[in-house]
Design a protein that fits this description.
171 residues; mainly beta; 5-stranded mixed β-sheet; 2 helices; 10% helix; globular
């Protein structure tokens, strides 16, 4: 199984909020919604990927030790499930995260970049353990039904691919 990353420019769906304590929350992944074409990820011309509701439920219920990283860099750890500094949940919209940022250099940098408007969104890294492929309207469709443990729940990104994502300072 290879590790995959997705940067979904899903507009408001990947909004990151910062509370009065500087903690952040948002959506690392958005579930496919047939009424929202932005909820599918284009793989290549004629193919798309859909993250199905429940894809993260096993990892969340078994409290897999997911991590929140800055730019997917392990030395820029922002939160971790096992430490209680990263909380994950699924709702109808997708994979929601909440990070209790500490007093680390990476956390301070992330807070500042959110305040300045430099961070443009979230992404996540994962390995697929259950999927199916189908054809719909002449297009190949990959439906991701489950991801494995040890996925990076999210990475806050400075990335032009996420230009449509919105970041908000709610403090």
């Amino acid at each position: 199984m290879k590790t995959e990353r997705r940067y979904q420019p899903a507009g408001d769906a990947l909004e990151i909020r910062q509370d009065q304590n500087g903690n952040i929350s948002g959506y690392a992944a958005v579930f496919y919604n047939s009424e929202d074409r932005g909820s599918a990820f284009g793989l290549w011309d004629g193919a798309e990927e859909r993250i199905m509701p429940g894809a993260f439920s096993r990892a969340i219920s078994e409290k897999d030790d997911a991590r929140a990283l800055f730019n997917h860099e392990a030395d820029k750890l922002l939160g971790r499930v096992s430490a209680g500094t990263l909380q994950l949940s699924e709702d109808a919209r997708g994979l929601h995260y909440s990070i209790s940022l500490g007093n680390t250099t990476a956390a301070k940098d992330v807070r500042e970049m959110i305040n300045r408007g430099d961070l443009t969104g979230s992404s996540f890294s994962f390995k697929v353990t259950d999927e199916d492929w189908s054809e719909e309207d002449g297009k190949q469709v990959r439906n991701i039904k489950r991801v494995n443990e040890r996925f990076d729940a999210l990475a806050l990104k400075i990335d032009p691919e996420l230009a449509d994502s919105k970041l908000t300072d709610d403090s």
